[in-house]
Amino acid sequence: MLLNGGTIIIPQNGYTAPTLNADHEPDVNDHVQDATANSASALGYKSISYNAGTGQFDVVLQDRTIGGRSYSSKPSTPNENWQSEANAAISQLNVRNDSVVFNGNTIMNGSWDSDGTAPTPSKIGDLTPPVIGNNVLYETDLTIPEDLGNGTHSTAGIVTYRRVESINTIFNETINQNIDSINDVVVHSPVVCYPDVPNDLTFNQVVDYDNTKSNIVIDQKFEIEFPNDGQHRNITGYGNRDYEDYISHKQIKFDFDVYLMDGDNIDAFINANDWYTLSKSYETFTFRAPHWVSENDYTVYFRTFANNTPASYSGLYETNSNDSLSNYYAVDSIDVAVVGQMYDFSIIGTTESNYDNMFFQADGSNTGVEYYVGNEDKRGDVDSSHINTLPIMPGKNSNTGFANHVLKKR
What does the angle CA 399 – CA 389 – CA 374 come to, to the nearest 5 degrees? Predict the structure, then answer.
């Protein structure tokens, strides 16, 4: 996962959020149902009726007689309390709460109750949130963009809490809380540069050659090792290992002309003192010094660039490895000796009269017959054109009658 813009959103993984199922009805009529009249005859009342004008029930009880013939005066009206009769005449209101179920526990039951009193809500209980696991807010395989420069980068974090459910809330949908004490991140793209020019003496004819330098034979192929591995800082994640993943490209420069070879074919011509970019996917390269290169001591230069090297990189290097955070490429150089090669020595004529007709035509021009020092070319391969080989000795004279003649010692 790429850290685009230096920011990443890490979703929770393996966290069980609390569950809340709530049903809230703001209209009072959804919580209270009107009472109904009970049977007047069953209660022994004259009548029970609803008065739409007043919105009340009228309850008429049976007549009751007070006083009598035994009273000589008007009796006083008793102070009566007919609450119980009224309650008996009218049913209780049907009421209900909102419905709230938290984490599977019913806090308020939304069922209707006919006794006029809804149940008291239960207590939710301990609302202390549990400590989450180590991997709930954890992400692996994060990738820093390749173009991010080396250095120490500060880190900040925010945990966002999202509301599970709400009823008549005045608060925001989310709450953000800063994470304190997050460590800084050190960004560094490590690269190494440990090239080698093997000293192949296969075609080197120099008797007293300089063994402190790698010898390169003109017009012969030679190999250069330009590996992606090597010793970097001796700390965790570095050490002696392969750093190809952090390499943008590799470059090489000769202070003499050279061909880059693909087998026996020329892949590219590299001018002296020009930097040439090589693929980081290869670690061994084959070159050939053209025949016009002068024998001399030279230097081959190497540099390996990190994938986050800035456009202005002059001077931002170290030898062999970019140990410092301020440096983006590693360099090295190797001194070499370019030497020539003598080959194809042949004899194309002699003053010995017995061989005149073999080497020369009547007009004095050469017949094309040559005696070579051997039957191999400069690369050690058999040359089919080297028919005649030295020494010139009896049996090698092709002139009729002169087969066993030799050159006279003078």
Answer: 170
Cα–Cα dist 27/21, whole Å: 19
Cα separation, 352 vs 366, in Å, equals 15
Please name the amino acid found at residue 133: G
| Cβ–Cβ under 8 Å, residues 258 and 271 | no
Q: State mean pLDDT over 95-109.
A: 89
* Strand arrangement, sheet containing 99-102: 20-23, 99-102, 105-108
pLDDT tens readout for residues 275-286 = 999 999 999 999
Which residue is it, tokens 């009547």?
Answer: 362
Three-state DSSP class for residue 335: strand
pLDDT tens profile 226-260: 999 999 999 999 999 999 999 999 999 999 999 99
Question: What would the pLDDT profile of 279-315 be if each residue is shown by its tens digit?
Answer: 999 999 999 999 999 989 999 999 999 999 999 999 9
Q: What is the mean pLDDT of the chain?
A: 85
Q: Which of 307, 305, 302, 306 lies closest to 285, judged by CA?
A: 302
Pairing outcome for strands 371-372 and 388-389 = parallel
Claim: this prediction has a pTM higher than 0.85: no
Q: Residue 204's pLDDT is what?
A: 65
Sketch the domain layout of the chain as residue ranges. 1-25+100-187, 36-91, 214-339, 343-410
DSSP 8-state class, residue 409 = P
Alpha carbon dihedral 354, 359, 361, 363, in 10-degree steps, equals -100
Asked whether 12 and 137 are in contact (CB, 8 A), the reply is yes
CA 190, distance to chain mean position in Å, is: 16
Q: Which is nearest to 292 in space by CA: 238, 352, 340?
A: 340
Assigned fold of 214-339: Immunoglobulin-like (2.60.40)
The two tokens of residue 269 are 């011509």
